[in-house]
Amino acid sequence: MGNDQKGFTLIEMIVATTVLVLVVTSVYSTYRAGMEAWHKGEEAIETLYETKFALDLITNDLRASLLPPLDLSDPSSPKPPKVTFIGRPSEISFATSFNLDKESSPVRVKYFIEEGELKISREEAENLTLATNIAGLSFEYHNGRAWQKSWDSDKLLPGGVRIKIRLNDSRILRSSVWIPASQANGQ
Asked: CA–CA separation, 125 vs 51, rounded Å?
C-alpha cells in the first residue's frame, strides 16, 4: 500500500515560513528606511526654508536701515541713542524703516543666535525665533574701502553688510547687502 497523503511536510512548512518572514522583514526594513529618509528630507527642507526666510528678512531690514534724523530746531526733541548701528561679528542691531505695520514709525531690530536658534528682537516685542538648527551666524561690515569685523556708529551706516548663516548640517547661506542710505558708499 502506498502513501497517498496530500499536503506539506513539517520541513516544507518551516522553510516556507522562514522565507516569508525574511521577505516581510526585508520589505518592512526598506519601507522604514524610506520613511526615515523622507522625514529627514522634510526637516532639512523646513530648516532651509526658515533660514532663507530669515536671511531675506535681515536683508530687507538692512536695505531699509537708517540713522534717526536730528531735529536741531526743536530743543525738546529726544536725543538719538549714542550708537545707532551696532555691528558685531555674530550679532547686529540697528534702526530700520522696514516695518510690516505700514502706519508705524521706524523700529530698532537685533538679530542674534541663542541656543542654536536665529532670533530677532524688535523694539518692545518679545524675541522671536526665525530659524532653528543654526550652527553659526556671522556679519562683516563695509566701510567704503574694505570689510571689517565690527561697526559702531551714530553718524554713518556701513556701506554694506555680509551675512553668513551656517546650519547644523554644514550648509551655508550667504548674502551681501548694500545699504542705499549709507554715506560710506560715497567715499
From this structure: 21
Q: Hunting for cell 550679532 — which residue is that? A: 91
Q: Do 64 and 97 meet the contact criterion of CB atoms below 8 Å apart?
A: yes
Strand ranges of the sheet holding 160-167, from the earlier edge strand across to the other edge: 147-148, 134-142, 160-167, 172-178
173 forms beta bridges with 165
Q: What is the pTM of this model?
A: 0.76
Do residues 65 and 181 touch, judged by C-beta distance below 8 A? yes
125, 97 contact by CB (below 8 A): no
pLDDT score, position 136:
96
Give the integer Cα–Cα distance in Å for 19 and 21: 5
**Those residues with Cβ within 8 angstroms of residue 63's Cβ, 6 or more apart along the chain or in another chain:** 98, 177, 179, 180
For 123, counting Cβ atoms within 10 Å of its Cβ (0-12 exposed, 13-18 middle, 19+ buried), the class is middle
Rounded to 5 degrees, what are φ and ψ at 174? Answer: -130, 155
**Residues 6 or more apart in contact with residue 171 via CB below 8 angstroms:** 48
Quick one: CA torsion of 24, 27, 33, 37, rounded to 10 degrees? -150
pLDDT 10s digits, 121-176: 987 778 999 999 999 999 999 998 999 999 988 788 999 999 999 999 999 999 99
Q: CA angle, 14 as apex, 13 and 15 as ends, to 5°? A: 90
